[in-house]
Amino acid sequence: MIIGHFYEDGTYPEPVDLSNKRRYFELEVCMVRHPRRYPKYRVDYASIAFCDTYEAAEVLMKEIVRTERYNMEDVYCFYIYERIMDVFFNRDEYTKCWLFDAKGEMTDKRLFPSYWSEKEFDGRSEDEIRFKWGDLVEYYDGDYVRLYFVLAPPTGKEHYMTRDYKGDVSDDSYIIIDGPGYQWHEHIDALHLFKPHYPIPKNIMRKYEKMWEGYLKERDEYNKENHFNSPI
User: Fold this and answer.
1) Quick one: average pLDDT of 42-53?
2) Residue 18 C-alpha from the chain's centroid
3) pLDDT (tens digit, 9 = 90+) per residue, 74-98?
4) 1 has pLDDT over 50
5) Distances (CA, A) of 83 to 50, 80, 174
6) Of 137, 131, 94, which is closest to residue 116 (Cα–Cα)?
7) How many CA atoms lie within 13 A of 229 on its CB side?
8) In whole angstroms, how far apart are CA 56 and each of 80, 87, 160, 206?
9) Is the pLDDT of residue 101 over 90?
């Protein structure tokens, strides 16, 4: 892997080859803070171990789950990040990442870097797409969890099979909305979406059902006026 950065004057220095650099594996736990009420609640995170191998980090995580070292009802999820030794990273900058639920079961993964990722993403298979159009999901932004509807999944593998290029990390994302129209949409990293962790109260569910109805009405009117047949 080769990385670099821009100087303040906009010039680009010689890239740095990190292919021979030593890796380490960071285990992170995400914990729900009370009160945990929809449509929004707080989730904190903490790095709890740094290991020489992925296997060691996974074993430690499963031991934490088995021994219930934390109040497991408050565990939101676990992440394992592969990072490069002696290089500063922000939280969402890594060479590989694995996502686990509160029971230590893997739910998703990314086996290419989250930065300088051009030509690294070749699409997701159907089995790798966890959510579909119309699903109500949780989006964890690193601080809070909110409810959203899914409009579109990440780009599928079939998209790239007939093309001479590949995507980057931004293509491994879902399109979601939290308002009654497409103008409320966002593109969200696939590793930050979850099934709802808790029962959704009836009054909150009604609010989101009306939101979805508003979105469908706007979409159908737009398609009719412009002679389109867009699913989103």
Assistant:
1) 96
2) 25
3) 999 999 999 998 877 788 889 999 9
4) no
5) 10, 10, 25
6) 94
7) 0
8) 11, 21, 35, 45
9) yes
Which residues fall within 8 angstroms of residue 129, CB to CB, at 6 or more apart? 153, 154, 156
Which residues neighbour 21 within 8 Å (Cβ) at sequence distance 6 or greater? 84, 85, 86, 87
Q: What is the pTM of this model?
A: 0.88
Cβ pair 232, 175 in contact under 8 A? yes
Residue count (the chain): 232
Q: Are the beta carbons of 39 and 204 closer than 8 angstroms?
A: yes
Of the candidates 101, 32, 35, the one whose C-alpha atom is nearest the C-alpha of residue 71 is 32
Q: SS3 letters for the chain? A: CEECCCCCCCCCCCCEECCCCCEEEEEEEEEECCCCCCCEEEEEEEEEEEECCHHHHHHHHHHHHHHCCCCHHHEEEEEEEEEECCCCCCCCCCCEEEEECCCCCEEEEECCCCCCCCCCECCECHHHCCCCCCCEEEEECCCEEEEEEEEECCCEHHHHHCCCCCECHHHCEEEEECCCCHHHEEEEEHHHEECCCCCCCHHHHHHHHHHHHHHHHHHHHHHHHHCCCCCC
**Is residue 2 within 8 Å of 18, Cβ to Cβ?**
yes
The percent of residues in the chain predicted with pLDDT above 70, rounded, is: 92
**Chain segment 53-70, per-residue pLDDT in tens:** 999 999 999 999 999 988
